[in-house]
Amino acid sequence: MRDVAATELMPRFRKVAVERKHDGSVVTEADRAVEAALVAALPGLYAVPVLGEEMPPDLQRALWRGAEWCWCVDPLDGTGNFAHGKRYFGISVALLHRRLPVLGAVYDPNTDEFFSAARGGGAYARANGQVRRMKPAATVPLAEARVEVGRFKRLGRVTQALFHHAPFAKLAMSGASVLQWCHLADGRFDAFLHAGEQPWDFAAGALIAEEAGARMATLMHDDYWRCDPVADWERSVIAARHPALFEEWKRWVRAHL
Question: Buried b vs exposed e over 74-93: b needs ≥16 C-beta within 10 Å?
Answer without folding.
Answer: bbbbbbebbbeeeebbbbbb
